[in-house]
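pinging the channel bc i need a second pair of eyes. not urgent but kinda urgent?? the chain im working w is below, pasted from the shared doc
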Amino acid sequence: MTTPARIRIIIVDDHDMSRRGLITFLDAFPDLEFAGEASNGRDAIELCATSQPDVALVDLKMPIMEGIEAIPLMKAAHPALRVIALTSFSEPVLVQAALKAGADSYLLKNVSATALAEAIRACRDHLSTFAPEVTSALTSPPTARLESLGLTSRERVVLSLLVKGKSNDAIAEELQISKNTAKNHVGNVLWKLSARSRGEAVAKALASGLA
């Protein structure tokens, strides 16, 4: 039986102690592999080219080049890269900016080691994870705006669950529908929002006031 490839991760943070702590954290999980570190966004772009990571943990407030500026450049050069914004700030404006920039998940630095490991695995599998402090601040999508996009009532619920970082299986369980039906609903939501991924759908929902 083939052993699954380890998830290669880079850490982008201007605080040395934060980077050291995250490196130690990665050592505790055999399926996670430290692939490099950078202290600003400019160096992170160069690091991606040499280390070819699967997931990047990116702080947002850094000198020289901030995370929000670096994320779209990192993803443009490496389309398969998945990005988790890992920061101390939960302000809605910053969350929206990070998601618009291309962050796939948004977590705060108080996240537990186990939860961060799960979020990394989910991000690698194209699932988004958001800190409770972020999702609790989100409101339900305005009905009129959603109707203008042609979203059905069920699709509105699915969108709200996507914002909360729910997987297709979790959506199916919560709505008591089949996994295939949940997958179809998610696909319809992404299509109607002209989003290429779940993270982009969430970003558009937040940025346009749909969530």
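so Residues 112 and 118 are 10 Å apart (CA to CA). and DSSP finds eleven helices and five strands in the chain. — does that match what u expected or am i reading it wrong
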